[in-house]
């Protein structure tokens, strides 16, 4: 007879994968590092195989580990779905959520997947726009929640600090030799643009604002074409591009603070549950880009 999986073991296993380390995973599941390590060893003993390849710098899944990950996520999602079906079967309604496109693609996808599993009868409308455009929409009650960069107009509840990094077509992209340095920037007024320019000015680097766009894809297109370098949140850097830094003579950039802000008319259970899901999932996740991408 096959041994039964302990859900706590699967939860710790997924936490290690998502966090990229035993130490960070332990904090996320509110256990000691030793306890999490013991849980993984117990799971490996049950399965008779190794789930992780470990060295001093990296933690990666073995082939059996990758196979287990898919089933573990499904098992945990099914458990949450069953709990929700019994405890909160009556939750229905609609939530309008606003967020920049880079936050939606890089951070919100797993949140929305889990929320849809827990509350399948809640409709979510997503409005993709920059934080500067979402602020007046929130004030006018055109959206219920906003997952945005904190500024004077968008305070909200703090979720996480997201690093900003320089991005180029490659670590030795020819555009780095240009003087003044051609830089692609987000639209005037946004905090990401302000932090980027402050870093350049503080380092006394000669630059020119070669391109400006409110769209992540618009800025990325200028990098793909080899026409500029840009500054992005680390989580939203496409895998095909290179992260640049000290080795290329580029200065550090202050991180962005991400918040969940709410409209005056968002005081209802559906909005509460989605805001809680974002806080729960994203405040625990480790900022950063996935392994296996170029870094300068």
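Sequence proposed for the structure above (296 residues):
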């Amino acid at each position: 007879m096959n041994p039964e999986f302990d859900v706590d073991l699967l939860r710790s296993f997924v936490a290690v994968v998502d966090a990229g380390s035993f130490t960070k995973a332990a904090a996320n599941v509110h256990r000691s590092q030793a306890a999490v390590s013991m849980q993984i060893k117990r799971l490996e003993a049950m399965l008779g195989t190794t789930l992780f390849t470990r060295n001093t710098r990296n933690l990666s899944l073995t082939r059996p580990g990758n196979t287990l990950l898919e089933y573990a996520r499904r098992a945990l999602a099914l458990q949450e779905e069953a709990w929700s079906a019994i405890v909160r079967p009556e939750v229905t309604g609609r939530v309008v959520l606003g967020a920049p496109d880079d936050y939606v693609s890089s951070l919100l996808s797993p949140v929305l997947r889990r929320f849809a599993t827990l509350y399948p009868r809640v409709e979510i409308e997503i409005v993709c726009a920059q934080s500067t455009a979402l602020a007046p929409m929130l004030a006018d009650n055109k959206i219920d929640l906003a997952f945005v960069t904190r500024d004077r107009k968008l305070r909200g509840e703090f979720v996480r600090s997201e690093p900003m990094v320089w991005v180029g077509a490659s670590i030795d992209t020819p555009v780095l030799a240009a003087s003044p340095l051609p830089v692609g920037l987000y639209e005037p007024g946004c905090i990401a643009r302000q932090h980027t320019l402050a870093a350049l000015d503080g380092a006394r680097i000669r630059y020119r604002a070669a391109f400006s766009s409110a769209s992540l894809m618009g800025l990325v297109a200028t990098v793909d074409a080899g026409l500029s370098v840009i500054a992005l949140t680390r989580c939203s850097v496409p895998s095909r591009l290179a992260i640049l830094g000290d080795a290329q003579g580029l200065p550090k950039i202050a991180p962005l603070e991400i918040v969940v802000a709410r409209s005056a008319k968002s005081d209802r259970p559906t909005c509460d549950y989605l805001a809680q899901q974002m806080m729960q999932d994203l405040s625990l996740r480790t900022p950063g880009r996935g392994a296996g991408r170029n870094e300068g």
